[in-house]
């Protein structure tokens, strides 16, 4: 499905994420990880191109968390990067209230990775 959907489509991220989640649930972990990495690269490009857009920054955070969850090393580096972005959004008063809970959770995961 995703191969036929242009990256500019408003639901591209959602569809790609659903495909990766499905792959992971079905045991195709390498394929899921590649999909998560591709989404991460896409979201990095968008966030860098338009740093003022909180939605692109949030999508980047979600991609970092998905990659961290799929990494064999525990993803501490991805967690730290996601926390930096969330802190920046909070400091600039652009963090959605619904996302504020991610900050203490990421701090906990970074301090206690087990």
Task: Summarize the structure in words.
With 114 residues, the chain is an all-alpha fold. The chain is built from five helices and no strands. It has helices spanning 12-25, 29-49, 54-70, 76-91, 102-111. Helix 3 runs antiparallel to helix 4 and helix 4 runs antiparallel to helix 5 (102-111). The radius of gyration is 14 Å and the shape is globular.
Q: Counting H and I runs of at least 4 residues, what is the number of helices?
A: 5
Stretches where pLDDT is under 50 for at least 5 consecutive residues are none
The total of beta strands comes to 0
What is the CA-atom radius of gyration, in angstroms? 14 Å
- How much of the residues is beta strand, in percent? under 5%
The separation of the N and C termini measures 36 Å
Shape: globular
Helicity, as a percent range: 55-70%
List the secondary-structure elements in sequence, H or E: HHHHH
Helical/strand content category:
mainly alpha
The major pleated sheet works out as: none
Nearest-integer average pLDDT: 91
């Amino acid at each position: 499905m995703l191969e036929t959907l242009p990256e500019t489509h408003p639901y591209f991220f959602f569809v790609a994420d659903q495909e990766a989640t499905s792959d992971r649930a079905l045991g195709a972990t390498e394929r899921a990880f590649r999909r998560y990495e591709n989404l991460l690269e896409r979201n990095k490009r968008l966030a860098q191109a338009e740093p003022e857009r909180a939605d692109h920054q949030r999508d980047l955070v979600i991609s970092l968390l998905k990659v961290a969850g799929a990494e064999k090393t525990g993803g501490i580096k991805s967690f730290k990067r996601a926390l930096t972005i969330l802190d920046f959004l909070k400091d600039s008063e652009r963090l959605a209230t619904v996302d504020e809970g991610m900050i203490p959770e990421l701090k906990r995961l970074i301090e206690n990775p087990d």
